[in-house]
Design a protein that fits this description.
Number of strands: 9
Radius of gyration: 35 Å
Helix content: 40-55%
Largest sheet: 9 strands, mixed
Low-confidence stretches: 260-270
Number of helices: 12
Number of domains: 1
Structural class: alpha/beta
Mean pLDDT: 85
Strand content: 15-25%
């Protein structure tokens, strides 16, 4: 009975791309096998890793017969690796997961498949996500909590350079394969271009639940510290923005006219101003405390100075009194005579 029910469920092709993610790839793979949706194949495409990832992947392949391991003979880069491996997908749907992220919700695939099966006019469903920071802290449901921007439409995604978490995607295979042939393989971020095409070519469903954890790593695209590298990436993204405005001008201005961009922008902007205001209030409070302490310190110093001034004034008065006294004058005459006697 279980096999019959399984056969009725559409096959999902889960695709993991990996390059030098030795420390994280096992967690990514294990999270897929924790899904309560069983009718899936797992294709892992390693792009010539040099950190020991391949040995770990071979061990996982032995453990899980569902895994189909692809070892590239040359390094293709993220976009080309993704495009190539998607051609091997046999499922009705494709789910993407990067080698350093992992799925959080065991029912992720079940929920998403049910949604796309029920809404045949939708081409994609994506979800909210958590962020695992470099220091180990976790930011929960970043779209819901406005930590990150959820685009919701083509123009917002394009203008604000937002991100839909690719590890949360479930896309109809035919649509994904079609879009893969249309994007620029040398783009700064293939997921940015793919999401623009998904917004342009299909209806997109957003599931307001965090189903995946996005891991921030040092020197990753979300954590660039090198100024030149950042500017180079930003320049390429700007080029992509203009390309897509020219490619889909009607859709772009339709979103703008519908005020969707302004509504979203104001929502995020108000949140950011609120957070900024709270931070500024905190800084002002701390500054006022420091200023108060400094004033107290200065008051004490002023009291000490005033006391020293009074003491010096008293000494001067005593000295003047001595200079004007009878015995001081006698002492000066005595010194004068003693000096003359020596001569």
């Amino acid at each position: 009975m279980k096999n019959i029910e399984k056969s009725r469920k559409p096959l999902v092709s889960v695709i993991i791309t990996n390059y030098n993610k030795k420390l994280y790839i096992k967690e990514a793979v294990e999270s897929v096998f924790k899904q309560d949706y069983e009718n899936f194949e797992l294709i892992i495409a390693d792009d010539c890793s040099t950190d020991g990832s391949i040995e770990i992947l071979k061990q996982l392949e032995e453990k899980y017969p569902k895994i189909k391991l692809i070892l590239n003979s040359e390094n293709l880069g993220i976009a080309k690796n993704w495009i190539n491996v998607c051609k091997l997908a046999k499922g009705k749907y494709i789910a993407r997961l990067d080698g350093d992220d992992y799925w959080l919700d065991p029912a992720k695939l079940s929920k998403q498949v049910a949604l796309l099966e029920a809404h045949v006019d939708f081409g994609q469903v994506y979800t909210d996500y958590d962020i695992l920071n470099i220091d180990g802290t976790i930011e929960r449901a970043v779209n819901k909590n406005l930590v990150a921007a959820n685009p919701e439409n083509f123009a917002t995604h394009l203008v604000l350079l937002t991100m839909t978490m690719s590890g949360s995607w479930l896309v109809r295979t035919e649509l994904m394969q079609k879009i893969n042939q249309e994007i620029n393989q040398e783009t700064a971020d293939d997921t940015f271009d793919i999401q623009l095409e998904l917004f342009a070519q299909s209806k997109v469903y957003y599931l307001d639940e965090a189903t995946v954890v996005y891991r921030r790593l040092e020197n990753s695209d979300s954590s660039i510290t090198d100024g030149k590298k950042y500017l180079k990436r930003l320049k390429k993204l700007n080029e992509t923005q203009w390309q897509y405005i020219n490619k889909y001008p009607d859709l772009f201005f339709e979103n703008i006219a519908a005020n969707e961009l302004n509504r979203f922008g104001l929502k995020v902007q108000n949140h950011k101003w609120h957070e900024l205001s709270k931070e500024k209030d905190k800084q002002i409070f701390l500054f006022n405390n420091e200023l108060s302490e400094l004033k107290k310190h200065l008051a004490i110093q002023n009291q000490l100075l005033a006391s020293k001034e009074a003491e010096l004034l008293q000494k001067n008065q005593e000295l003047n009194e001595i200079k004007n006294s009878f015995w001081y004058k006698v002492f000066k005459v005595f010194l004068h005579r003693a000096s003359n006697d020596k001569k």
